[in-house]
Design goal:
This protein is 79% helix and 0% strand. It is an all-alpha fold. The protein has a domain at 28-68. Pfam families: FtsL.
Length: 85
């Protein structure tokens, strides 16, 4: 009789362990899914930021701002001095 009770306790503990493990596995899987969605959102934002950076650094935009805001002009070709390294 004692052996059967002990066997029943072990079986019950094992069943509870399986249930807990399955629950924990589902929770971790949900967390992985959430983190993957977050990673995808960060990847999209990174792509947008790179495009924005390229737009702000365009040569024509910088020239236009230098001319418009600062009054800078390109020097005449004959007034440019090249220095050899």
């Amino acid at each position: 009789m004692r052996f059967l009770l002990m066997l029943l306790a072990v079986a019950l503990a094992s069943a509870l362990g399986v249930v807990y493990t399955k629950y924990r596995s589902r929770m971790l899987f949900a967390e992985v899914q959430r983190l993957e969605q977050e990673l995808n959102a960060y990847d999209e934002e990174w792509g947008r930021l790179q495009l924005e950076q390229n737009t702000w650094a365009e040569h024509s935009r910088i020239e236009r701002l230098a001319h418009g805001r600062l009054g800078m002009l390109l020097p005449a070709r004959e007034s440019i001095i090249y220095i050899k390294p």
